[in-house]
Amino acid sequence: MKEFELINRYFKGRGITRRDVNLGIGDDCALVTVPQNCQLAVTTDTLVSGVHFFDDISPRALGHRALAVNLSDLAAMGAEPTWVSVGLTLPNISQQWIEEFTEGMHEIAEYFNVQIIGGDTTQGPLTITICAKGTVPEGKALRRGGAKVGDWVFVTGTLGDAGLAIESRKQGLTIEPEHLKYINNRFDYPTPRVAAGQVLRGLASSAIDVSDGLLADLEHILDMSQVSASINIENIPTSDAMRSSLSFEEQLPYILSYGDDYELLFTVSDDNKSMLDLKLRQYGVEASCIGQIKSGEGQIELLHHGEKFNFEQQGFEHFAKEQV
Asked: What is stated as this protein's family in its record (predicted)?
């Protein structure tokens, strides 16, 4: 199978067709219509074998994961996902592999009403690059730089499961089979908080998705907002799988420093705090208050039941260490 046969068979004409796509796959560019009074949100992520995913990941999971991590960026901005372009580099073409990969990608694209409108295929080491686009009402996008002193710090879902999945594969940690299946799914099939991001428009003062670790991503908010924060580590939400597998002290590196959870970390003013739970529960999303914004210049104070707690491990950063 050659390049254009691959495109025609597995991408062109598959998945949903949005009315705002004037011209999709097949020409030099796609043409889309951006709704009136909306801004275009654009994000790009590259996933490299051995860095962002294990070599033995199932193709279907990889297709899901590649798109999900980009949709998570759109969620963090409060944007509605609309269109994606896919850059796919393959060492060779296996029809079974590409069928399963595109199946995983089309499944999540259809769930979030996203159309694949173009991209590129080439030969080389396995790499997937996604450029995802979305729309957000003009002036309503969530930003990292809006946190104010007195705002409350929240996070959706639970943290640390993806990191525990990574280390269980690397180190062979002993984890009960039902918990192992759960954490592996959290890593392989992350759930972008798209609905929650749109709910947070008008409620949250700042937001980011947890991709590089809680502390590292919180630092981005603090740096952009020119504030500090105190975090109560006992309030950070964890799953049954995490609590059953590790002691509290053993959990800390996973919940504080590991990324890949793709939950939303955000700040909310005292005035908006009471509305938050009601609005998020309509979409089946829970959020936990884990701290508060303080004055200062980017410092994070960790507290454990009111006492200062020291923790030095940092989050993921490219060119600093390997991911998987």
From this structure: Belongs to the thiamine-monophosphate kinase family.
**Using one digit for the tens of pLDDT, what is the confidence trace for 134-169?**
999 999 999 999 999 999 999 999 999 999 999 998
Q: Who contacts 126 (Cβ-Cβ below 8 Å, separation ≥6)? A: 48, 49, 89, 90, 91
* Helix or strand (DSSP H, E) at 244: helix 240-245
43 marked among binding-site residues: yes
Q: CA 214, CA 265: separation in Å to the nearest integer?
A: 8
Q: Cα 77 vs. chain centroid, distance in angstroms?
A: 11
DSSP string over 117-175: EEEEEEESS-EEEEEEEEEEETT----STT--TTPEEEEES-SSHHHHHHHHHHH----
Within the chain, which residue ranges are assigned CATH 3.90.650.10?
152-308
Contacts of 165 (CB under 8 A, 6+ apart): 183, 184, 186, 187, 188
Q: Is 304 annotated as a binding residue?
A: no
244 assigned ligand-binding residue: no
Confirm whether residue 55 is marked as ligand binding.
Answer: no
CATH class of 152-308: alpha beta
Instruction: Quote the CA–CA distance of 320 and 322 in Å, as a whole number.
Output: 7
- Angle, nearest 10°, between helix axes 177-188 and 161-171? 110
Known binding residue 73? Answer is yes
Record the pTM: 0.91
Question: Is residue 120 marked as binding?
Answer: yes
Per residue in 44-79, pLDDT (tens digit) is 999 998 888 888 889 999 999 999 999 999 999 999
CB 244 within 8 A of CB 179: yes
E strand or H helix at 72: helix 59-76
Domain 3-137 falls under CATH 3.30.1330.10: yes
Helix (H) or strand (E) holding 59: helix 59-76
